[in-house]
Design a protein that fits this description.
Elements (H helix, E strand, L loop, with lengths): L4 H10 L5 H12 L4 H8 L3 H22 L1 H28 L4 H18 L1
């Protein structure tokens, strides 16, 4: 099983919606980097049982994203904030080269602070 970065992100967003056992298996496999055999030994089940549980949990995480779309919205928001920051820099540069308005400078600085705050 190849480890998938998307699953880790989706687990961060939707992990609490999984059963405790699914959370444990996903966490062991992706966060603790345990092999299927190691998890199986620790949990007293077969390697195939661990694999099946992880696959079901991954499918649920993908279904949550398909229905709720929180990760997609987060990425759109990040992209929008990056673009706002770039446009703010353009406004600042044009302001410096032309009218040197203090109001424009202050507004652009405030926009920059807000985009940084919202990006965290």
């Amino acid at each position: 099983m190849a480890k998938n970065l998307d699953v880790i992100i989706l687990f961060d967003i939707y992990g609490d919606m999984l059963t405790q056992k699914q959370q444990d298996f996903i966490s062991y496999y992706y966060n603790d980097d345990l092999s299927l055999a190691e998890i199986a030994e620790n949990e007293g089940i077969t390697r195939q049982g661990v694999r099946d549980a992880i696959k079901r949990a991954e499918a649920q995480l993908l279904a949550f994203e398909e229905h709720l779309g929180l990760h997609a919205r987060l990425e759109k928001t990040k992209d929008g904030l990056r673009e706002i920051k770039e446009l703010c820099e353009v406004i600042n540069e044009v302001n410096r080269r032309t009218i040197l308005s203090r109001e424009i400078n202050d507004a652009a600085a405030r926009i920059d602070v807000l985009t940084q705050m919202l990006s965290e």
